[in-house]
Structures are given as structure tokens and as C-alpha cells.
Amino acid sequence: MSEGTTDNGPGMCPAYGCFMPGSIKSGQYWKCSFHHGSTAGEMASITARMANRRAQIEIAMRLAASNYGVAPTAGDRKAAREMGLKGDIERWSASRLGNAMLSRLRTECRQPQHQTSAGPTDLRAAAAGDFGDAE
Length: 135
Ligand SMILES: [Zn+2]
What we know:
By secondary structure, the protein is mainly α.
């Protein structure tokens, strides 16, 4: 393990505690779309918000990876509506629905919010890692 990386596993985003695959090249690392572009100081609070939404993120990831033309289940649509997605989602494919969910979740996770929902302090302390993107 080289300096500044975590052992989330091969192919995984290196942000401490992150459960997502690395999908975007960022310097020497492959980061997930949630952590890509964030500064070192933002990493841990993003991870904490992701952890709070892990079940939703996993549904969205599964849907986004669906083959072309696959329809989401009624339960998937219900989950999307519970996340606040509106509009003509009855007509959306699973992959479109999943990508819309991911986009919303990404925005939520990257927004600064009150300290009370910021998550475990050990995650925050680990944010001092040196693999944040430069401004
Ligand atoms: Zn990540």
C-alpha cells in the first residue's frame, strides 16, 4: 500500500471508508464519482453522507448498471420517488432511473450540511489523507 492510499480493495475508490468502485481517473488514483473532484478536507464528510445513504446508492448503482431497455421494478420506482425524483419516471428504463438517482445522491453527498449528520469522527480524522484533488 503506497502512502496516501487506503486498502478498500483493488479497483475501489481510495477515500477512507468508501464502498464505491473507482470509476474516474484522478491523478494517480481512480476515484468514485462521489469523491472525484473533492478536496482532502471534504472527503470524509462526503464518505459519511454516503454511508447514511448506502442502501439508496446500492439500488441506484444496480439500476444504472442495467442493460439497455430493462425496466425498473415497481419497488425501484418507489425508492426513486421516496428520494424525491419526480416526473415521468414510469417511462424510464432502469439505467436512466439509476443514473438520475445517482446524480441526486451525488449532489446531496457533496453539499455541506450541519455537523450533526457529518458522521463518525474517525472518518473525519482520516480525511487528512493526501489524496484529495487540488483546488
Ligand atoms: Zn469514493
